[in-house]
Structure formats: structure tokens, C-alpha cells
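Sample entry was shown:

___
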Amino acid sequence: MKGVNPRVAVVIVYTAAMCMNGLDSTIVGPALLTIARDFGEPVSAANTVEVAFLVALAVALPVAGWLGDRFGTKRVFLGSLAVFTAASAACGLSQGLTALVLARVVQGIAGGLLTPVGMTLLFRAFPPHERMKLSKVLIVPTALMPALGPPLGGFLTEHFSWHWLFFVNVPIGVAAVLVGVVGLREEKEETAGGAAPFDVPGFLLATPALGLLTYALGFGPAHGWTSPSVAVAGPLGLILLVAGCVHQLRAKNPLLELRLLADKGFASATVLALLTSAGLMGVLFAFPLLYQAALGASALDAGLSVFPEALGLMLASQVADRLMPKLGPRLLAVPALLLATGVFAALAVPGVAESAWAVRALMFCVGLVLGTAVLTVQIAGFADVPPPAMGQAMGLFTIVRTLGGALGIAATAAVIAAGGGSHAQDTAPGPYRAAILVTAGLVALGALCALRMPREAPGPPPFDDEPRDEEMQAAA
């Protein structure tokens, strides 16, 4: 171990951590029905397992950079990885839904720190001209692991138990931490004039706001929206959220730069990220439940049914890159979102879900058409964001997209509960199909928002030695 090359250690530890994080974002879905049955909880309450993880992930993202600069990237990264591994073990050992949700919160917070701090470690170890060589390594955690999550989750649940969805992280995490302790170097970036002060009031407003709203949205469908805890948590969370937004708009160095939403293109892209993520995560939550609870499929069948979506998404990255320069953002995104709406709705048509190959074909189309739209919108939305604000813009965009996924899951769970499909033994397909139609409606709203996208594709950025428009005008 003493001879581990620091750059090799960075790649090993980063890849292991991202594989764990990538799997955990998708591996639980096919097991939610089994988890609900084991704990004797309503199916609609199982959404908290996913919602809690996503919201905790979003809460941690804004503080990751500050923590890395303040305490060192190696210390923060390995500490987060150790906590993520311990939380995975706690998830697997959970004997009740509340304990599992709390462990998922800790897991989400640690996971939210891993990605940005890990990227910082990676980019400090490799100069820009060498980073392209890393693409073959990075494709594993970023694309392959989330794609393998659903079938692996279904296999482990069916042949072992759902506890192994989390135990599988433990040996990988322990080994990665040991390699990191020996092989990684501690580095701190000193910035001229010092780093911007951390927005403590913004963090203290945002964290409880999102936590309370998570509790209300997660447990409201199962326990009732008028139950005392939900009735208090929901309004209080909204009040704190509004107060937090007001503070962000007034603060000199806000946690989230909400003023960036004044840019029309970026604002449209951010709203679209919210709606499309809500639709996608909602359908990936509701459809496996329809497949298992109403149609009698196994957890493995449910995982395999959504696997083609990831393949379509990978193909979409190639399609969007070739078509956007020719068609422009609006002409590419709007038809793609309308097609996605039709595909989502087709999943709810009686008789379609009973055909395994029809489901796989539709899920592939979901990834292809929705992925094309999302990638197009993201590229166009950041076209006019100035380079100094790019970090804040990407952070805000990622957080909104993550919260959109949590809201989509919570919304579909609420529809399932309202339709009477709240118990693990319920087999009527109606509530699940209604929830899928709601996700189609969210994507349709996205198509309307996409009408605000620019017609022309953004041009390539100038090279460092080329004059920008403002410089040319000044020279004239």
C-alpha cells in the first residue's frame, strides 16, 4: 500500500465512491414494495426512502465546496465516504421505516458531498490536457452504475433480501477509504483575498425548510394530510422556504445565487429541469409498483423493465449533440417533450404493461426522447451564463433538478394513496396508472415551458486568445 501512486489512488477512490453513489440513486426502486410489506407500511409511505435521500443530497451540495476549501478535500472526501459506508450498513440493519429513512438522510448528505469534492480531487490531480483520458473511467460511475441499479436491486431483493441493496456498499467503501488514507494527498487551494464567507443564515433556513417539507410530502399520503405532525411540518416548511428565498435574494454572498434566474434562458432551463426530473423520477417510482403490486411481477422483472431507459439516455447524448446545431433548442426540445408525454401516457394504457417487450421499448423511448430534450435544454440554458457565475449556476441547476425528482416521487405517492392504492397488498392497477398519467402531465408542462427556449443554437465559446463581442465593440 505504501507504493500507491497518488494519481492512481485518486482514480480508484473516486470511481469506487461514484459507483456506490450512482447505484444508490436507482437500486432501491424495485425493492420499495418489498420494503413496505416487510415493515407493514402502506406502499405510499415507501416513497420516503427515496425522497429523503434526494432531498438530503440537495441540501449537502451547496456546502461541499466550502467544506473542501475549509478543511481540505482529502479529509472531507474520505470523511464523507466513511459516513456514506456506515450509513449504508445502518440502512441494511434497519428494522423499521423510520430508522431506514433516517439512515438514508445521512447517506444522502454524505453522497451530496462526495461528487463535487471528488471532482475537485480529480481535477487537481490531472491537468486539463489529461482529463479527456479519464472519460473511459468516468463513464462507469456516471452512466453504467445507475443503469445497472434497477436490475441489480431486483436481483438482490428476489434472491437474497432488500437489506443487501445497502450491504453491498460496505466492503467497497471500506476498501476505498483504506486506499485513500494511504494514497491521497491533502491539498488546499488558497484564494486571493480569502474565500467568500459561508452563508450561515441561508443554510439554517434552507435545511429545516427542506427537511420539514420532505417529512410532510413523504408521510402525508400515508398518514393523512390533516394528521398533526404533517399539518404542522408542511406549512412551517413553506414559511421557512419563503424566508430562505427572500434572504438569498438580499444576501451579498448567498448560499444559492437565485438572481441568476433573471436570465430568461437559464430560468427556462431550470424550470424544465424541475418538471422533467419530477416526471422521470415519478414514473420510475410508480411503474415498478404497478408492475409488482397490480400485475404480480417480481422485483427482478420490475428492475429489468426500467433498465432500457438508461440505454436510451446514453444514446440521447449522441443524438442531442448532432441535432441541436441543425434544429436549434426550441425546435428540438418541444417535439421531444411532446413525444415523451405520449410515451409516458402509453405506459398507463391498460394492456401495455402486461407486455414485457412493449414496456422495454417504451422505457427505451423514455430515455431517448426525454434525454434528448433535457440535454438540449441544459446546453442552451447555460449559453448566456457568464464564466464567473458558472459554478453557482450549475449548483443551483443541480439542486433544483434533484428536488424536482423528490417532488415527482412524492406527488405520485400522493396520487396512489388518494386512489386507494395505499396498502402493500392492494392489487388494483387504477391508482398506479393515474400516478403515471400525472407524470405525463408534468412532462407536458415542460413542453409548454420549452416554447420559451431560444430558436438558434448557442455558438461555440471563443478561445482565450480570441476577442469577445464586448471587446470588439470597445475597440471599435
